[in-house]
Amino acid sequence: MNPENPSSSSPWRLSVAPMMDWTDRHCRHLHRLLSRHALLYTEMVTTGALIHGDVARHLRFNTEEHPVALQLGGSEPADLAHCARLGEQWGYDEINLNCGCPSERVQRGAFGACLMNEPQLVADCVKAMVDVVKVPVTVKHRIGIDKTESYEFVRDFVGTVSEAGCRVFIVHARNAWLQGLSPKENREVPPLRYELVHRLKREFPGLTIAINGGFTTGVQVAEQLGQLDGVMLGREAYHNPWWLASWDAAFFGEPEDPSLTREWVEERMTEYMVREAAEHGTPWSSIARHMLGLRHGMAGSRRWRQVWSDHRLKGMHPCDVMALAHEPLRDAA
């Protein structure tokens, strides 16, 4: 990946955001079935979890997920360098530093969005990682903290961190309110200010600038790609995953694939459930939860979703569950 040349085939052009409890390797397997080109991100993994915990549990992923990026949470340069090196050794295509999460738990660890108040520390963290890995080191951040709404705040942050070797910035176009709002409210309440991200690109034309926040349609994505290098999609991509099936043709110049159907994706996910159960003892329900939006808005989808989310069926073979889930679809046809 070359952050100096964000072309139509660049992984930063379209990506799925790192989302805690959602974008695990099973979710990413689904998303890769739907789009060959979109860049996929892990959930945030803290440096403490890797230094003191089960590295394989946190870093294992399926080779078909490429391109895939590891998002780290931390604020100690040496720890981040160690974990970035681990990420590269495990085969990740990018190391991303979280400077956007506003949760109190993350704040207690002195990382996430509160790091925006310490741009030189972020620069030190980035340099420590850049010095030990060959893959790109990127930063995901907000446009401001609490009631600080000046453009100069985010401009100075990007300027300082870019001098340390970061060439790719993914900007969530909302402030992070560190007090008084839950993480969910922080994704909805602070106003979106896309114009600040556009201004960053104009001021730093040599950097790759991608935008995140509030996009739900292809028209909106295309509008942003007319001004920026990339768009990161979050909740809409998760709750309506079939949207990803249109991305390669719409945004990467690929011909439409008539063999890519919801039925084909469901069959591949069912095969994956069987494989995961055999290799890792993974219950099919841990995988199926990520594809519950696959038939969003279609006739029979409510009952189909109920079958795949019914834990009373967890003893059944996934192929039998799929057959049961298809009964309401046939009835609705």
From TrEMBL:
It holds the Pfam family Dus. PROSITE patterns: UPF0034 (PS01136). The active site is at C101. It is an enzyme of class 1 (oxidoreductase). It catalyses: 5,6-dihydrouridine(20a) in tRNA + NAD(+) = uridine(20a) in tRNA + NADH + H(+); 5,6-dihydrouridine(20) in tRNA + NADP(+) = uridine(20) in tRNA + NADPH + H(+); 5,6-dihydrouridine(20a) in tRNA + NADP(+) = uridine(20a) in tRNA + NADPH + H(+); 5,6-dihydrouridine(20) in tRNA + NAD(+) = uridine(20) in tRNA + NADH + H(+). The record marks N98, K184, R187, R302, R305 as: Interacts with tRNA. NCBIfam families: PRK11815.1 (NF008774), yjbN (TIGR00742). Catalyzes the synthesis of 5,6-dihydrouridine (D), a modified base found in the D-loop of most tRNAs, via the reduction of the C5-C6 double bond in target uridines. Specifically modifies U20 and U20a in tRNAs. PANTHER family: FMN-LINKED OXIDOREDUCTASES SUPERFAMILY PROTEIN. This is tRNA-dihydrouridine(20/20a) synthase. The lineage of its organism: Bacteria, Pseudomonadati, Pseudomonadota, Betaproteobacteria, Burkholderiales.
